[in-house]
Amino acid sequence: MSDAAKPAVSAPGGTAPAPRGTALDPRRLALHWRKTRILTALLLGLWMACILGVGMFARELARIHFFGWPLSYYMGAQGLLVVFLLIIGCYAVVMNRLDREAREPPAPGLAQAASAASPTQAQPATSPAQTHGGPN
Q1: The domain containing residue 38 runs over which residues?
Q2: What is d(CA 105, CA 89) in angstroms, rounded to the nearest whole number?
Q3: 115 lies in some domain
Q4: What is the DSSP-derived secondary structure letter of residue 112?
Q5: For residues 50 and 135, what is the distance between their CA atoms, to the nearest angstrom?
Q6: Is residue 91 part of a domain?
Q7: pLDDT tens-digit series, residues 47-101
Q8: 3-class SS of residue 1
Q9: Are residues 18 and 24 in contact, defined by beta-carbon separation less than 8 angstroms?
């Protein structure tokens, strides 16, 4: 399916993606993906620390009781599920904010600097019909 034939899909938060034909600044896009990778790495590290921490320190955690159960059992049975849901919720909230920041138009001062740096982007887009003398 070509890019033009794909239907536009709204994000779950109700915000629409960037309109087709608008190019994101490569620097902003690179920064967005850098932040995304950092967030993903941090949350995966937290997830791994929770899994390995409960397994590695099960004997020590068994000495602590939580609602009448050893903490190691509680964390293995229920606590880690709550931690995983919190990690997923954190990822969704932060990624929605990062995506919104990436779609926002740059500040007026930045837009003028970007158009001065690359004059081809500042020119209005022309359709093939206008270029080749076809009907408008």
Answers
A1: 26-103
A2: 27
A3: no
A4: H
A5: 64
A6: yes
A7: 999 988 888 888 888 898 888 888 888 888 888 899 999 999 999 999 999 999 8
A8: coil
A9: yes
Element (H, E) at 48: helix 26-56
More confident residue, 37 or 104: 37
Give how many domains the chain has, as a whole number. 1
Whose structure tokens read 């600097």?
A: 113
In a domain, 132, yes or no: no
- Using CA atoms, how far residue 12 sits from 3, 43, 48, 96, in Å, is 21, 21, 28, 9
Residue 37 lies in a domain: yes
pTM over 0.70: no
State how far the Cα of 80 lies from the Cα of 9, in Å rounded to an integer: 33
Cross-strand pairs, 66: 69
Q: Exposed, middle or buried by CB within 10 Å (0-12, 13-18, 19+), for 75?
A: buried
Token pair 């690359």 in the structure block, residue: 118
